[in-house]
Amino acid sequence: MASGYADLKNELVSAANGVAYAYRDTGGSGAGAAPLVLLQHFRGNLDNWDPALVDALSSTRRVVAFDNAGVGGSTGTTPDTIEQMARDAIAFIAAMEFSQADLLGFSICSFVAQQIALVRPALVRRLVLASSAPQGASGLHGWAPEVIGAIGTPPTSANS
After folding, report:
1. Topology, domain 5-134
2. What secondary structure letter does DSSP report for 5?
3. Residue 37: helix, strand or coil by DSSP?
4. Most exposed residue of 13, 95, 97, 127, measured as fewest CB within 10 angstroms of its CB?
5. What is the Cα–Cα distance from 30 to 89, expressed in whole angstroms?
6. pLDDT in tens, the chain (160 residues)
């Protein structure tokens, strides 16, 4: 039996959008309580969550981490917008049959969590934003040169 997050094996759940999402589910089920769904940083996957953090969070509640579409162990195509990342996360949450969830969005996924709360407010009980900033904040209008060099220049308009 697994003793903590680091010992858990990835599981898969198939969503209505055709994506098989890799996830880890830990902690108490807490009858009727909303699970805490962890939304990962840019280019992160299930292995990027600190097991000590997840174990602490799951000591009193159910915590679920997953790889979004096209990332890590999940199938599908990696989304290229926050809006699509949010739609994919909503598809995962629906596949898990969660009627409501608490969301912890870290870094870029803090934007995803906000988008989920905007388009599906009844789905979100609580929202935790970590390492976030408001849209258009100083220094957030572009990617750092080393990121652009590693992944390419992002489109600058919807018509690009």
Report:
1. Rossmann fold (3.40.50)
2. G
3. strand
4. 97
5. 22
6. 467 999 999 999 999 999 999 999 997 766 668 999 999 988 889 999 999 999 999 998 999 999 999 999 999 999 989 999 999 999 999 999 999 999 999 998 999 999 999 999 999 999 999 988 666 566 555 556 776 667 665 555 555 4
Q: What angle do CA 79, 103, 76 make, to 5 degrees?
A: 25
Closest among 120, 143, 110, 135 to 44, alpha carbons compared = 110
pLDDT at position 30 is: 61
Give the CA distances from residue 83 to residues 32, 89, 102, 113, 159, in Å, rounded to whole numbers and listed in that order. Answer: 29, 10, 19, 10, 16
Spans of all domains in the chain: 5-134
Q: Which helix (H) or strand (E) holds 20?
A: strand 20-26
End-to-end Cα separation, the chain, in angstroms: 50
Sign of CA dihedral 38, 140, 116, 157: negative
pTM, rounded to two decimals: 0.82
